[in-house]
Design goal:
The protein is an alpha/beta fold and 173 residues long. The protein has a single domain, classed as Vaccinia Virus protein VP39 (Rossmann fold, 3-Layer(aba) Sandwich), CATH 3.40.50. The protein is built from five helices and nine strands, in the order βββααβαβαββαββ. The strands form two sheets. A six-stranded mixed β-sheet has the order 6-5-4-7-8-9. It has a three-stranded antiparallel β-sheet with strand order 1-2-3. The longest helix is centred in the first third of the chain and has 21 residues. The N terminus is likely disordered.
Length: 173
């Protein structure tokens, strides 16, 4: 099996067609821009209409290196967050940042955003996916389906993407 990096440090496996990421390259090249968009989304009046409280349970879906969790923890240190990503290197970097930042009430799991198996239907008050859609067949549709499945009644989903209108805030009423 041969893997070749592209310009962002992504490796696409010719055998599995899955992505493994060099999290250090991603952090250096993209985290500042994705963090600024995450902060804008979290400050949006619709998001703030669904406040994060001590009873909230947040899914940082396709968490990458933890930019969304970092932004949430800066404002809501009590927040309970489950972070998921398909790339082991991203989860490793997330866990390192969690230790370094002394984030409490966080957990990270290796999961594909298109198949959040093991996560409870309706278990989250907030689901945030910041630039997590992958350009593979059926990716966004499957990921959105899983977001709706795990989002609780009265919950809020926040999705940002690289193309078009970059922010979607959806509530589950």
């Amino acid at each position: 099996m041969v893997s070749v990096p592209d310009s962002l440090g992504y490796f696409k496996s010719q055998k599995t067609h899955s992505y493994a990421y060099k999290s250090n390259n991603f952090d250096k090249m993209a985290s500042n821009s994705t963090l600024s968009i995450a902060k804008l989304a979290l400050a949006d009046p619709l998001f703030t209409a669904f406040p994060i409280t001590p009873s909230s349970y947040i899914l940082d879906n396709a968490c990458g290196t933890g930019v969304v969790t970092s932004a949430i923890k800066d404002k809501y240190p009590f927040a309970r967050i489950l972070a998921t990503d398909i790339a082991p290197a991203m989860i490793e970097t997330y866990n390192s940042k969690a230790l370094q930042g002394k984030w409490e009430n966080v957990e990270a799991k290796l999961l594909d955003s298109k198949d959040l198996k093991g996560l409870q239907d309706g278990g989250f008050s907030h689901v945030i996916m910041n630039f997590g859609f992958m350009p593979d067949k059926g990716g966004p549709e499957k990921a959105v389906s899983e977001i709706w499945r795990v989002l609780g009644k009265g919950g809020l989903a926040v999705v940002t993407s690289w193309a078009g209108n970059s922010l979607a805030l959806l509530n589950m009423n």
